[in-house]
Design goal:
The protein has 2 domains: 153 residues, Glutaredoxin, CATH 3.40.30.10; 44 residues, Antioxidant, Horf6, Chain A, domain2 (Antioxidant, Horf6, Chain A, domain 2, 2-Layer Sandwich). The protein is built from 7 helices and 10 strands. The strands form 3 sheets. The chain has a 5-stranded mixed β-sheet. Strands 8-10-9 form a 3-stranded antiparallel β-sheet, with no helix packed on it. It has a two-stranded antiparallel ribbon with strand order 1-2. The N terminus is likely disordered.
C-alpha cells in the first residue's frame, strides 16, 4: 500500500505539457531562477545520481563535448545532483584535469533535494538519496515538452537526446509530425485530415507520399 508521502510525491511529478515548476537554486554558475534563465531558448534540465561516479562522468562529459550542437539548436544545458556546490566544483575541476573536458554549464547543488522532489527525480524504489537520470526538455515558454527517465546503472544516449530535441523543434515550426526513427533530412508526416472534405482532398493530393488518407509523408526543406 502506498504511503501518503509517496502518493503526494507522485501527484506533484510534472508531466508533458505542464509548465516547468519554477525554482531558485545555487549552481556552479551562481544562483539561478528557472523562470529568468534561458529566455527565448530551449532548456535541457538533467539530473545525475552523484559527483565522482563513473557513469555520471561519462554522461556529463557527453553533454559538455556536444554543447556546441545544443547551442546551435538554441538550447541551454543545466545539470543537477544531490551534492554540494563544493563537490560540484571539485568534480568539474577533476574531470577537466583528468580528461580535458570542461563541464561548462550550470550544475545545481540540490543538497536539500528541493528541485529533485519538485521534478520527481527522487524515486524511492530506485533510491531515496540520489536522483535518477532524468532529462526534461523545456521550451522557450517554459513548458515541459518531453521527459526521459533512466535508472542509476544505465547511461543515456546523447544521439537520441539531440534527435528528440530536433524533432520537437521541427514539428513545432512546420506543424508536422515525426515518424519512427525520424532524423533531420527524413520525410515527415503530414497531419491527418479532420473532416470528410479534407479527406477527399487528401485522396487526390499527389504532392506527398500517400499510404492512405491518414498516413502521408513529405520531404521537408529545413531552413
Amino acid at each position: 500500500m502506498e504511503t501518503q508521502e509517496t502518493t503526494q510525491e507522485i501527484n506533484i511529478m510534472p508531466r508533458i505539457g505542464d509548465q516547468a515548476p519554477n525554482f531558485v537554486a545555487k549552481t556552479t554558475k551562481g544562483t539561478i531562477e528557472l523562470n529568468d534563465y534561458a529566455k527565448d531558448k530551449w532548456l535541457l534540465l538533467f539530473s545525475h545520481p552523484a559527483d565522482f561516479t563513473p557513469v555520471c562522468t561519462t554522461e556529463m562529459s557527453g553533454f559538455a563535448l556536444r554543447k556546441d550542437e545544443f547551442t546551435a539548436l538554441n538550447t541551454e544545458l543545466m545539470g543537477l545532483s544531490i551534492d554540494s556546490v563544493h563537490s560540484h566544483l571539485a568534480w568539474v575541476n577533476n574531470v577537466k584535469e583528468k580528461t580535458g573536458v570542461y563541464l561548462d554549464f550550470p550544475i545545481i547543488a540540490d543538497i536539500d533535494m528541493k528541485v529533485s522532489k519538485l521534478y520527481g527525480m527522487l524515486q524511492p524504489n530506485e533510491s531515496e538519496t540520489a536522483a535518477v537520470r532524468a532529462v526534461f526538455f523545456i521550451d522557450p515558454n517554459k513548458k515541459i515538452r518531453l521527459i526521459m527517465y533512466y535508472p542509476l546503472n544505465v547511461g543515456r544516449n546523447m544521439d537520441e537526446i539531440l534527435r528528440a530535441l530536433q524533432a520537437l523543434q521541427v514539428t513545432d515550426k512546420y506543424k508536422v509530425a515525426a515518424p519512427l526513427d525520424w532524423k533531420p533530412g527524413d520525410k515527415v508526416i503530414v497531419p491527418p485530415p479532420t473532416n470528410l472534405e479534407e479527406m477527399n482532398e487528401r485522396l487526390n493530393d499527389d504532392s506527398c507520399e500517400r499510404i492512405d488518407f491518414y498516413l502521408c509523408k513529405k520531404d521537408l526543406k529545413l531552413d
